[in-house]
Amino acid sequence: MVAVSEGFSHRVLPYAGAEELLAGAVPFLRRGVADGDRVMAVTCLGTEVLLRDALGGDAAGVEFVRADSWYAHPSRTMADCLGDAEDAAGGGRRLRLLGEPAWTHRDPLEVREWQRAEAMTNVAFARTGAALLCPYPVRALPAAIVAGARKTHPETVRGETALPNPGYLDPWTYNAACDTEPLPPPPPDAEELLIDVVDLYWLRMLVGDYARTALLPDDDVQRLLVAVTEVMTNAIRHGEGPIALRLWTDPGALVCEVADRGRWRAGTGFGLIPPRIGEPDDAAGPDGGGRFGLWAVRMLCALVQIRTGEAGTVVRLRLKLPLRVDGRLSTHSG
């Protein structure tokens, strides 16, 4: 990898209005254009219009991308952005990204998953030399989301000044705390199968039939089958029986849970960042966690929740179900 001119940075830009936004964002973007960086601005349309006007001729050196399409899925977005950063660094350039996360209409589980992605960005991108700046509109967002940004970004930007965030948490510590939050119990009407001897063929048949009955789109059924096969295989190899498979639907989601009596190493991130080719499988975190399988599972599902402890390990997979609009189905990929 060719060295870039500066080290990695990941900063939050809290702003209360257009003046504060432009005071931090415009110098950041202009510097990237002047330095020959690959400069990207991922924003809503309104912010794009403001930035183009303020940048003038420098706007030609910025790639503008809509936030609602960019921020579609935490793991997929991280993988794509990390690829861009590594490609830029490999060519002796720097990725300079202004990324305004899309928080609107996300439920609490989605919000937490994106916050975890923000935290793990500090690990995944550390060797790329990328410069990432994340605007947060403080008047439009819940206070908890703004407070969370100070835990996941090492620095805060005010104008052209960057200051250390006193509330910043080590990414592994942040995610370990998330992984200790208790999961709600499965509903009483959840389908449950206790398994002593696993037959993956019939298991996939059972999960596939349930998913199709729940009206999960065919593409997502296939994603679920691959994900549950990986999780079940992991339970067979590393867990302790019996293994419990549970299926149910929540509002807007199909949930598939695999539980066993084995215990995983905590504090690893459980596949939250992509493993690197050529690295040992346990190189991603302080206690391991660089598993290709778990990263793939996160790429396939809308949300993956993992809890491990004295009672065993639970892996809960969620995929979005089609939205119902005026009695009709509107497909909504998970």
TrEMBL record:
**Residue ranges annotated for the Histidine kinase/HSP90-like ATPase domain, each copy included:** 203-318
Coiled-coil annotation reads none
MEDS domain span: 10-154
Q: Name one GO molecular function term.
A: kinase activity
Keyword field: Kinase, Serine/threonine-protein kinase, Transferase
Return the InterPro entries for the record: Anti-sigma-factor_SerPK (IPR050267), HATPase_C_sf (IPR036890), HATPase_dom (IPR003594), MEDS_domain (IPR025847), RsbA-like_anti_sig (IPR047718)
Per its UniProt record, what Pfam families does this chain match? HATPase_c_2, MEDS
Annotated NCBIfam families: RsbA_anti_sig
Read off the PANTHER family from this record: ANTI-SIGMA-F FACTOR RSBW (PTHR35526:SF3), ANTI-SIGMA-F FACTOR RSBW-RELATED (PTHR35526)
Q: What is this protein called?
A: Sensor histidine kinase
Organism for this UniProt entry: Actinomadura parmotrematis
